[in-house]
Amino acid sequence: MKIKSDFLVIGSGIAGLSFAIKIAQKFPGKKISIITKGTKEESNTKYAQGGIATVYDLAKDSYKAHIEDTLIAGDGLCDPAVVEMVITQATARLDELLNWGVSFDKNAQGEYDLGKEGGHSKNRIFHHKDITGYEIERSLLKIVNQTPNIDFYDFHYAIDLITEHQVFGDLISLESDKTVFGAYVLDEKTKEIKTFTAKYTLLATGGSGQVYETTTNPFVATGDGIGMAYRAKARLADMEFIQFHPTALYNPGESPAFLISEAVRGFGAYLRNEQGKRFMKKYDTRLELAPRDIVARAIDTEMKLQGNKNVYLDVTHLDYDAFVKHFPNITKKCESLNIDIRKEYIPVAPAAHYMMGGVVVDKHGQTSIKNLYASGEVSRTGLHGANRLASNSLLEALVFSHNAAEDIANRFDENVKLPSVPQWIDTSTNRNMEKILITHDRNEVKTIMSNYVGIVRSNERLLRALRRLYVLYQDNKRLYDHAEISTDLLELRNLITTAYLIVEFSRKRKQNKGGFYSKDLI
Ligand code: FAD
Ligand code: SIN
């Protein structure tokens, strides 16, 4: 089946949905297709807790301070022009969210109740209790569902981008020639592979935390956009920079790991080791509110020193009622595990959380492939450098989706015709593949990455990871060439590709920075 649209959006988190709303408003007579694997709402966005960092009241905060905090957290590798652009646009983008019906908490005086997180010099995090992402996803989906020129295809999995390579064959696809014409998409319910064509495509597939054993990311975060962009030969950068969130709840067997928001430390919580001692002063003068890479490494060191699998977050000294008001979901989760946060410490450990690198885009969200835009966690914009400042990613997605919509509106040419795109050719001969061939390899990728490519890496660990991933790649390729296409198989292909890229970029890095740290480079 062929489905023709003017605009194709791949992914339904904050990046995809906010872009779709904007482009639908700009082009009321044009057709927008959103495709997403699984349900409409499942995404990293849905689980965001802390909120959105925004300078709103210039009498109390300044763009300069937020810019400086972002640059410091990025460990010298941010693009300062991009940082300035994003931070100064934040107020306008937040106003749009408010207009779209997103509600942010206010205090007794009727002012926005601004939270604080690591690396921020001011309270500037707009939040909806501790379920900010859920509130944003709910509001954006409501608008999208009411927009007549948006068609929503849930349970549709994008397999590969369509470029000259598929249309004209290998010889045409020189770097300078590449244009995107849409994507091949698996209908997860009927198993049909559909051809979605479009003049413009937005890649908004989110992150890749699932390459690690312990992650805060939901099961959909399998690096699909990275895999698709890599195969289409788009430019990628900074893939070695992985952010480990310092404080995921340590609850063995629970996957994904439940996050204990950094805003809890911003609210005054302490980190303590097995002996009950606060330890952050050994590592950084900013203590519990140092940037995330520093806190995560400090916890990792502390756990190794003590031979433990976790440290503790202490909220016993905080005002319980105020805490419950701000963090009802976290409180409920602790209660469900019989942790009485008034008396007991919360066991926590770092977990893979965010991918700083990704598909390289310019200030308009344009990738190195013509008519292919990228926004959100899949992209590498230059905002985060080597380490993202807390609560800057929802903001980044809003800004780049806005800029992409503006850029397309300025460039849209009614007369551009799409080439005739061939349908997917099904070459599969094996329709009874054993699932174990996929589940085992998926687990193996995760073990390799957690043991060899975690918070602290080394040359030897990276080499071992590379060798093992190559074997997994070969096995997966044989499966892919012959087995019936399924979400599991495709996700595994992208997990292996993403893991391989993280390792390869890590092997090339010569200096420790932010989310990359090798003990051989100390
Ligand atoms: P996502 O929201 O992940 O959406 C990606 C979409 O693409 C999903 O719908 C997915 O199903 C779909 N998709 C993926 N692959 C395919 C495919 N092959 N075909 C079709 N569809 C596909 N950031 C902040 O700024 N503040 C916070 O407080 C915050 N808290 C967080 C808490 C948690 C637990 C987590 C995991 C992240 C948090 N982050 C936070 C990070 C932030 O949530 C994400 O970076 C951001 O939501 C990414 O948005 P996105 O639209 O790029 O991707
Ligand atoms: C958190 O609430 O700690 C997550 C914030 C983020 O990842 O930006």
What does this structure look like?
This protein is α/β, with parallel strands linked by helices and 522 residues long. The protein has three domains: 2-240 and 356-411, 3-Layer(bba) Sandwich (FAD/NAD(P)-binding domain), CATH 3.50.50.60; 244-350, Alpha-Beta Complex (Flavocytochrome C3, Chain A, domain 1); 435-484 and 486-521, Up-down Bundle (Methane Monooxygenase Hydroxylase, Chain G, domain 1). The chain contains 15 helices and 18 strands. The chain has helices at residues 14-26, 44-47, 63-73, 80-99, 132-145, 164-168, 224-231, 262-266, 292-306, 320-326, 328-336, 393-411, 436-452, 459-482, 487-508; strands at residues 2-4, 7-10, 32-35, 52-53, 125-126, 150-153, 156-162, 182-187, 193-197, 200-203, 236-237, 242-249, 270-272, 311-314, 346-355, 358-360, 372-374, 379-380. The strands form five sheets. A five-stranded parallel β-sheet has the order 6-3-2-10-17, covered by helices on one side. A four-stranded mixed β-sheet has the order 1-9-8-7. A four-stranded antiparallel β-sheet has the order 12-15-14-13, with helices on one face. The longest helix is centred in the C-terminal third of the chain and has 24 residues, at 459-482. The radius of gyration is 22 Å and the shape is globular. The model has no long low-confidence stretch (mean pLDDT 96). The chain binds flavin-adenine dinucleotide and succinic acid (SIN). Flavin-adenine dinucleotide binds at residues 10-16, 35-38, 42-45, 47-52, 132-133, 157-158, 204-207, 216-217, 220-221, 224, 259, 354, 376-378, 391-394, 397.
